[in-house]
Amino acid sequence: MTILVMYNTIMTIAAGAGLIGIALLGRQLKKRVAVAAEGWSILFGILGFILSILGTIMSVTWPFRLPGTADANILMGEPSMALGFLLLGASFYLWQRRTVFAAVGQSKEAITQIYRTLKPISIFVVVTGLMLVACAAAWIRYQLGGAPSIEPLSGYLATVVFANAPAVESIFLGVLWGLVALGALLFPFTLKLNSRAVSTIVFSAWIVAGIVFVLFGALNFYTHVGLITNMTTGTDFKI
Predict the structure, then answer these.
(1) What phi, psi does 236 have (nearest 5°)?
(2) For residue 61, which of 25, 30, 174, 191 sits 20 to 30 Å off, Cα-Cα?
(3) pLDDT tens digits, residue range 112-138?
(4) For residue range 210-238, what is the model confidence (pLDDT) as tens digits?
């Protein structure tokens, strides 16, 4: 019996929630709205813990070993690890400087101090964006990420509905990673006080990508369970 080690489901959910959270927090800062830093700190701490732990394990142990799946160890594991540690850092800073975040909107010095702290962090955000650009290109160029034919719903769509267009899922994943990369590469430009247009692009890219990640991850809880069921019990569930 083949045993599948798959925990990219909870990682996908956490990554999506993290992107949505970062985008919404950034929107609050741009609008100079006081931030309830404790709540954001707890959220980012939970998500960062999940992503940093599982992303690191995936990156160094390569649990995906079946033919056609090994690429996921790099394309999913390492970006998750990077986002996880960024979220943990954000969680720590939010908790330590919660009085500063509470003063946003009342004190120009508060937002200036936050932006001053974010500038050196933006270096890692940008290089992570470059990594994601390469990942997006790899998804599409090598036509990776296709669901196996025995995976309910996803495999059925890939082999029956999209049989004449095998690159559909690869393009979907490439565009999704590309959206996150776009926001990461533009992130330093949002730290300017008059960066409303750029901030809107980053906000939109991360909100859309975050929502898609959450929905995709939620769907995979169903399809991955069906895949394991089909592989281990000999069933043939299509949907």
Answers:
(1) -140, 50
(2) 174
(3) 999 999 999 999 999 999 999 999 999
(4) 999 999 999 999 999 999 999 889 898 98
**Tens-place pLDDT, residues 61-109:** 999 887 778 999 999 999 999 999 999 999 999 999 999 999 998 988 9
CA-to-CA distance for 174 and 145, rounded, in angstroms?
A: 10
For residue 89, being part of any structural domain is answered with yes
**What pLDDT is stored for residue 107 in this prediction?**
87
Q: Please report the beta strands in 109-184, taking only residues with DSSP state E, as ranges in sequence order.
A: none
CA distances from 238 to 81, 158, 161, 215, 225 (A): 33, 11, 12, 20, 12
DSSP state of 65: -
| DSSP state letters, 123-166 | HHHHHHHHHHHHHHHHHHHTT--PPPTTSTTHHHIIIIITTT-T
Asked if the model's pLDDT at residue 1 lies above 60, the reply is no
In the chain, the number of structural domains is 1
Burial 151-167 (b: 16+ CB within 10 A, else e): bbbbbbbbbeeeeeeeb
For residue 214, give both structure tokens: 């959450």
Phi, psi of 86 (to 5 degrees): -65, -40
pLDDT attached to residue 4: 67
> Is the residue at 239 inside a domain?
no
For 210, the domain range is 8-233
Number of Cβ within 10 Å of residue 183's Cβ equals: 27
Whether 165 is covered by a domain: the verdict is yes
Q: Is the residue at 72 inside a domain?
A: yes
Predicted local confidence at residue 216, as pLDDT? 95
